[in-house]
Amino acid sequence: MSFFKWEKTYAFGIEAIDKDHQMLVMIINELYEAMESGNSKKILNDIVYRLTDYAKNHFRREEMILKSIAYHEYDSHKAEHNDFINQVVVFKQKLDSGEIAFSVEVARFLREWLKEHILSSDKKYVPEMKKFNVK
Prior knowledge:
Layout: H1 15-36, H2 41-68, H3 74-97, H4 104-131
């Protein structure tokens, strides 16, 4: 059983967004599995880098769409994205400096943040995107 199971409730019927969310879930699972199997710090760092990079690209794509449809909560949504990236950057810096180690708590944070973001913040924009025929 995977650490972060993709569920139908995470899918909005907006292909680009759904695919990005699925990829983020897969990378979080990969990170968790690497931690559980005691992989080297380099492998874990590489996965964290991919997660950060993919999240940034996803957020940019999502924000472009939200801006193009003049989404009324654009600024607060973008702020959530920025907060997440900042938290991951701080987390990565602490890992690199040895201040903290990779742990299940870190993976849980990533899982819970993404789950909450998809089911609350992202879900709010779905009607607007569908109104503008975003697929």
